[in-house]
Design a protein that fits this description.
By secondary structure, this protein is mostly beta strands. Helices cover 0% and strands 52% of the residues.
Length: 122
């Protein structure tokens, strides 16, 4: 099993940047793909980004493409999500997740963190 803990959320103004972290413990994090998802009140969980275990492949949701960057450091058992040019529409709880393969479908992921709140003011 893998335990995931997100951090780095907070309140920022539109146009600013924020970097989320996802610290993993338990079974070797480096053997898993990692994804970021978000969920706003009253909305379905939305795919943000995913990265393969070796960082060779990254994929992004259409709404964040060109603004967000996913990365990982397997030596630190940590994944990251750098969010730039934030807008109020990015306001949500952000979750990291781990899985055997990278995917944009949240139902594919086996392990989840508890989430971190990101609020973007206009």
């Amino acid at each position: 099993q893998v335990q995931l803990v997100e951090s780095g959320g907070g309140l920022v103004q539109a146009g600013e940047s924020l970097k989320l972290s996802c610290a993993a413990s338990g079974r070797a994090f480096s053997s898993y793909a990692m994804g970021w998802f978000r969920q706003a009140p009253g909305k379905e969980r939305e795919f943000v980004a995913a990265i393969s275990w070796d960082s060779h492949i990254t994929i992004y949701g259409d709404s964040v493409k060109g603004r967000f960057t996913i990365s990982r450091d397997n030596t630190k058992n940590t994944g990251y999500l750098l969010m730039s040019s934030l807008t109020p529409e990015d306001t949500a709880v952000y979750y990291c997740a781990a899985n055997d393969f990278y995917d944009n479908d949240y139902r594919s992921y086996s392990y989840w963190g508890r989430g971190t709140q990101v609020t973007v003011s206009s």
